[in-house]
């Protein structure tokens, strides 16, 4: 049922991601939409979230709008404490102490592996060679994907991004599926959801292949399948996701008060 409220696809994605975050968790967010999702959760339903950035700013809330970086004054002026990337990523995240992280993806495949390194358009071969298109790199996303108890991936839902197999694994999902993460000794539990501009995918409990569990009111199962580069399976329990309520939109826009991420 429609709420008759006006909101953008980016806002729907941020709210859907924020709904994945629970009160009291230790959470790590990147810059941009992942930070918007995290601090929306804190403002709306998870007031006791303990936030940390990759640079080690702990226990802060944005002041005057979303920050431009992980140590921007907007995110550091009211922090509980300052540490560093070694403590944040090496101690809290890599050890499995961090409950949840949110990362982005330039490419993601059916097992939740993420590529943010480059696009080759050909076989890389046995030795690394420069990509045709160089991307932003992993930053702290590899640490989050490897060590957090679970993590959520955010990505625009396009066929060129949702591929059967990523060209390069910058941040590991479930590798080749099944129990691969356990066999390779990862401390973290893996991706719990891929939240896109069209809907939400979750891993099958046994195969770990991602399947559609929710679509947004402005999308459809047919559109999502057509925008996915593998034969996307549909969960038998798939439903339309709840649209944002007034309180959710108000909380989201109070965090993104400058409208920096309010895109169509």
In brief, what are we looking at here?
This protein has 8 helices and 15 strands. The protein has 264 residues and is of the alpha/beta class. The chain is globular and about 45 Å long.
Structural description of this entry:
With 264 residues, this protein is of the alpha/beta class. It has one domain (9-255): Glutaconate Coenzyme A-transferase (3-Layer(aba) Sandwich), CATH 3.40.1080. The protein is built from eight helices and 15 strands. It has helices at residues 9-18, 33-44, 73-76, 85-93, 141-147, 180-183, 221-226, 246-255, and strands at 26-29, 50-52, 57-58, 81-82, 100-104, 107-109, 114-115, 118-119, 133-134, 150-155, 162-163, 191-196, 199-203, 210-215, 233-240. Strands 2-1-5-10-12-13-14-15 form an eight-stranded mixed β-sheet, with helices on both faces. The chain has a three-stranded mixed β-sheet with strand order 7-6-11, with no helix packed on it. Strands 3-4 form a two-stranded antiparallel sheet. Strand 13 and strand 14 form a beta hairpin. Helix 1 (9-18) packs across helix 2 and helix 2 packs across helix 8. The two termini are 21 Å apart. The model has no long low-confidence stretch (mean pLDDT 92).
Keywords for this entry:
8 helices, alpha/beta, Glutaconate Coenzyme A-transferase, 15 strands, single chain, 23% helix, 264 residues, eight-stranded mixed beta sheet, three-stranded mixed beta sheet
